[in-house]
Amino acid sequence: MSTTTSYPRKLLVLTAVVLALAPVAGGCGGGGDEAEPEQPTTTETGGAGETTLQLAADPGGALKFDKETLEAPAGTTSIELANESSLPHNVAIEGGDVDEESETVTNDSTSLTVELESGTYTFFCSVPGHREGGMEGTLTVG
Ligand SMILES: [Cu+2]
Question: Other C-beta atoms within 10 Å of 141: how many?
Fold first, then answer.
């Protein structure tokens, strides 16, 4: 007669909480908090992945984005623009055959999704005067 000994196994299920949600804008203005969480850009190899880039207009109302350069692999790219200022802004992409722009928002966010091939593009705000004022940067795709 043998006793069957069963070893209880604890299955530790790790639930990965993806913090993909941008913090809801609760406070308006003030607080020059530049602590921006670095987001792990999980780019799936395989080509057809979609990349989301975060971009923000200066919350204090300066004519600038928080980044002067952006990078993405070729494919579908979405640029999410957060504009917490009282100035209207948008994000536009120009280069190659691409000439697209998002809607213009004030105290809101918007996004622009484009198909991009390898190359160098310019992103900017197309509100008159803003690009000239400094709302411009380089998007490198490759
Ligand atoms: Cu602008």
Answer: 22
**Spatial distance between the Cα atoms of 7 and 18, rounded to a whole number of angstroms:** 33
Give pLDDT tens digits for 47-73: 457 999 999 999 999 999 999 999 999
- Encode pLDDT of 106-132 as tens digits: 999 999 999 999 999 999 999 999 999
Tell me the chain's radius of gyration from C-alpha atoms: 21
Nearest CA to 57 among 80, 81, 33? 81
Q: How far, in Å, from the CA of 12 to the mean position of ligand 1?
A: 49
Sorted by where each starts, the structural domains of the chain and their CATH numbers stand as: 50-141 (2.60.40.420)
Output the CA 83–ligand 1 centroid distance in Å: 9
Distance 79 CA to ligand 1 centre (A): 15
